[in-house]
Amino acid sequence: MKKLYTALITPFTITNDIDYPALDKIILRLLDEKVEGFVVCGTTGESSTCSENEKLALLEHVIELCDHRAEIYFGIGSSNTCDSMRLLKLSEALDFEGYLIVPPYYNQPTQFGLYEHFSTLATETKKKIMLYNVPARCGVSLSAATVIKLANDFENIVALKQASRDLEMVKEILNATQDFIVLSGNDDYLLEGITSGMSGVVSVIAHFAALQMHAFFEGLEEGRDVSELDIFFKKLAHLCFLESNPIVIKYLLSQKNECENVLRLPMTAIGYEARVVLDQNYDKLFMES
């Protein structure tokens, strides 16, 4: 069966503190819906606006709440290797699966610099590492050759979250590695990714569509037609990315009374035009699914 991970939001109170009761409500529901793993402090979790202490506290809280019922990956990406290393060192002793690490953003390192960044971090941990290729956010893309070299040089570099539509890159990586998996980072491109050899998804829309994703994976395994679910994911992803993630996700979860519609600056709550589109289409979309 393919793997389903959720890229967790970080709920905030109206005073901009982390809302742990809201987080618990969301996680416990997703565990009931058989989500197999969580990414804590990724893009969806607004990690760039959380302090180091908040990130560590979030990680510890999720570890305790999940109690080994789901795998946990901790986002330690930053714009420099030193900050990522510090967060790795501070969290290494905790009981969780591994790290999700994006390329250093903004400064656009070379492929050699990217290799050195990831290899430096991999050398200092025994935990698993999931590389995260997200060129639209980072301004630089991991090449297939860099991923292959990292996967073959380090046993603990075990996966790639591919938030890019370069499926030839996926095939090239899988053909040149062993026991290395690629997970989709694009909810609207899931069928294409799985067809190209991906082993599952790190999903944003799983906050609302975990049950449908399980049905999708089961249908693929059994050889059934999953085209309607594929269309559903594409439509839902389009809605959920009308504005920068996680603006829409937080609005929709607030409509379900699972969290406040609060983001930290420079992220702001959803705008009027996007909200109108969501309100007109969201319920209808789920009725059709």
Please explain how this structure is put together.
Helix content is 48%, strand content 13%. It has twelve helices and eight strands. It has an eight-stranded parallel sheet with strand order 7-6-5-4-3-2-1-8. Helix 1 packs parallel to helix 2 (52-66) and helix 10 (227-240) runs antiparallel to helix 12 (272-288). The longest helix has 17 residues, at 272-288. The radius of gyration is 18 Å and the shape is globular. The two termini are 22 Å apart.
How far apart, in Å, are the first and last alpha carbons? 22 Å
Query: Can you summarize the main beta sheet?
Result: 8 strands, parallel
**Mean pLDDT, nearest integer?**
96
SS field, number of helical segments: 12
Determine the fraction of residues in helical runs and give it as a percent range. 40-55%
Return residue spans where pLDDT drops below 50 for at least 5 consecutive residues: none
How many E strands?
Answer: 8
Percent of residues in β-strands = 5-15%
Q: If strands are numbered along the chain, what order do they take across the biggest sheet?
A: 7-6-5-4-3-2-1-8
3D shape: globular
Gyration radius from CA atoms, angstroms: 18 Å
